[in-house]
Design a protein that fits this description.
The complex is a heterotrimer. Chain A is an all-alpha fold. Helix content of chain A is 74%, strand content 0%. The relative contact order of chain A is 0.14. Chain B has a five-stranded mixed beta sheet, sandwiched between helices. Chain B is built from 19 helices and 14 strands. By secondary structure, chain B is of the alpha/beta class. In chain B, α2 links the parallel β1 and β2. Chain C is built from 13 helices and no strands. In chain C, α3 packs parallel to α7 and α12 runs antiparallel to α13. Classes of the chains: A mainly alpha, B alpha/beta, C mainly alpha. Chains in contact: A-B, A-C, B-C.
Amino acid sequence: MGNTSMSVGRYAIYACLVIFAVLYLMPLYVMITTSLKDIEEIRQGNLLALPAAPTLYAWAKAWGSACTGSECEGLAPFFFNSIRIVVPAVLISTLIGALNGYVLAKWRFRGSEFLFAALLFGCFIPFQVILLPMARLLATFGLANTVTGLVLVHVIYGVAFTTLFFRNFYVSVPTELVKAAQLDGANFFQIFRHIFLPISLPIFTVTIIWQFTQIWNDFLFGVVYSGQGTQPITVALNNLVNTSVGGKEYNVDMAAALIAALPTLVVYVLAGKYFVRGLTAGAVKG
Amino acid sequence: MLNRSIAACFAAASLVALPVQASEVEVLHWWTSGGEAKSVASLKSSLQKRGVSWQDFAVAGGGGENAMTVLKSRAVSGNPPTAAQIKGPDIQEWGELGFLASIDDVAKKNNWDGVLPGVVSDVMKYQGKYVAAPVNVHRVNWLWANPEVFRKAGASIPTTWADFMVQAKKIQDAGYIALAHGGQAWQDNTVFEAVVLGVGGAEYYKKAFVELDMKALNSSTTDEVFKVFGELRQFIDANAPGRDWNVATSMVINGEAAMQIMGDWAKGEFAVAGKNAGTDFVCVAAPGTSDGFTFNVDSFAFFQQSDVNKQSAQKAMAEEILGTNFQEVFNLNKGSIPARLGMARAKFDTCAHDSMNAFVSTAQSGGLVPSFAHGMAVPGAVAGAITDVATNYFNSDTSPADGKAQLVAAIQAAM
Amino acid sequence: MHQTVKKQSVLDLLEAWLPKIIMAPTTLAMIVCMYGFIVWTGALSFTKSRMLPQWDFVGFIQYEKLFANPRWDVAISNLVVFGVLFIAISLLIGLVLAIFLDQKIRGEGAIRTIYLYPMAVSFVVTGTAWKWILNPGLGIEKMVRDFGFTDFEFRWLVDQEMAIYTIVIAAVWQSSGFVMAMFLAGLRSVDDSLIKAAQIDGASAWQSYWHVILPILRPVFFSAIVILSHIAIKSFDLVQALTGGGPGYASDLPANFMYTFAFNRAQMGIGAASAMVMLFGVLAILVPYLYSELRGSNRG
């Protein structure tokens, strides 16, 4: 009796999980099949049907020859631009977040909790609001429309979340451990290096994945603060899919979107396991 | 010594940044696709022949919304591009803020006052001096029709809005969609504009939607406009909201729908589908607007530059834009007609010829009016307010009286 | 402690200040780039700025105009509907999927990745895919009707009243997987013996989840709610890509309203006013919650 109900229950769970998986995959399915069709088939056919004669034409065009302005070189040149922005921005914001989190978790001072709360509240500011004052500020430091300036902006508005992640993670480290190390004469950085860093791999994974996703997919900052020839891939994607005259090539649009999403997709597929593990390590300790 | 090496260092750095020592233009625009991108590329290459290098700065999306955001942040940081795609009353606003550079000497040298119609050149000037160069003239009040569908439904192409309702009913009864439409705010507004001109006539149009005369807006004509606009709701299909305009056009091409009201850029869709004007599709003025012409002019405005090289590059660019070569290439690609009068017509199609004739004749008759749906007639705030009312009205079952009241209130609030 | 080596005490002093020194750049950036810009925007909302910021102060006129604008009413009530539903449904789906996935499921890795991937894809084009799926003439409705259920209707996307719910659907699709991951992580770090203990006490599996495990997951709820409300308030490209705010402006959200007015319509004053209203509205709801949660965690 117990056994059958158990297995019925498990079937229900599996069914539920699979149904959700199918629903989640639907947009991806539409995008992939569309990217493999030719434009005639899209115009006439059923959107949900499999491509009759799959072709990589759209992918090749999106990568190498679609127009993103007066240049028609596809997304390829912008791919590298994005990497030049994302890598430093992710690393710097993660490192700062780690140190901040370490301080806020284990080296609290008067007002440090308030500071943390203020940081969390402050980033509720809609990003559209900061566009102009930030542009002014960057210009004051001569960073307007430079990669450095754009990286700086990403770091500033990313640090709140990286700090949140690291703080929640480090809070779970027993304070006695820190005290004992202090008695042994270890200083601030030694404690960080020898006690905190070695256990930080999971939370670094989480933070890096999070930041990578956020910054890679950013359009608003990228379009406003990037400079000549350093526009990130999202800007190129936007230019590619937004046509004011007709002749919309949906297959190329979809292929371009998938190309632009590829790095983050790969990161999620490869590091997804560590992602959950990293969250696990710091999850339930406030 | 040290100073010198630092200076050399800087010089080297600036060389890296500006690969060509000669002049260059950095151009902000949102023409990123198909024919438009090709047209921009042709402007670019003709400038390069004159030794002016082109730094492309394309930001598409939202009919220039994103590009304007970028332009504003560049202006705030004191680093505006050499030229930017700005049009209509926005040119005046940028002029008032003191950002624009005069290109009057180029205009004088090339007799722009002579080759440009007055309505166009007025828009390009700030305080009597040219600060922008026009690229094209779009006619917005077109009706695109599929004659095959009309034949099958036993209907004729309507020339007034009253007739439109009769013919549309016939088409609908025959099982076709009468009016192909994409329910996006600007498309709703484009249809609204055609109704305003067709029902109210050019005089009313100018008074109410250009001069924002409250008496005209409060008149019974406005009630009539909203009544007709509201009646159109029944002739579009239920799936219209959110549809791109080119998808609506393809419904006319495929014979699913009979008509579409859309600017002359729709022609490109028919051309891509291999259809011929006159036989496969028909272009006529929107109902009741055959003696009217709502124009939409794209233009580049020039921003002040301290660098002399950039100033001369700017002027070269202005000259090229008004050159017959670019005017022809660009407008053949885009479906519009040249802003410059008296150009050779041979390469343009019949719809473009109609447009050119109407452009000249309406300029004399007074039927030539700026398109408010495309940002040519009133400042952005008012244009936006009109858009909001029109799109909300069209997508709800608001009564004509309420529509009028909302319009008046919204325009007053935005002024 | 001892004054034997003077150098050491300087180091000690430095050491004592080190936490503050480390927090200093972040604090400075926060004061300038978050609160400074909020103040800047606040000041701007009292000016008659149009195309660009201009510092002619005009009092509350922009706020009056804002509240008289019917489109703003729509945007605000949409944010309430959207925010509540989006956060609630994401939490619910995330939690249920996490509990199910935690039942030693075969193929967990693959299923988990499927739930997570939407977070990785930008909405610039996913919006188009969703637009097609939700469009009655192209997507789900057509598919079900083609199966023979000819009366089936699913036309939220083109319905003024329902369009905002399609935004909820797409937003939940994008974020619930991430919430699932957070809850899954939370469940994994709950001590197994707790669940066993609850079951030995006679509680059924569901009761043990409800009474024992959910309370332990409270910090996860906290983090999830903070992240989800950030996403909700900043939802912008979602609307842009899926409905363009339509039909009419029925699915507009405040962020879209603000962007349009500030940057497209040369009504920067109203844009700034809308940003301030939005910010303070949100803080009025969230501050008490954040405050109580942070205090709670401090005690713990």
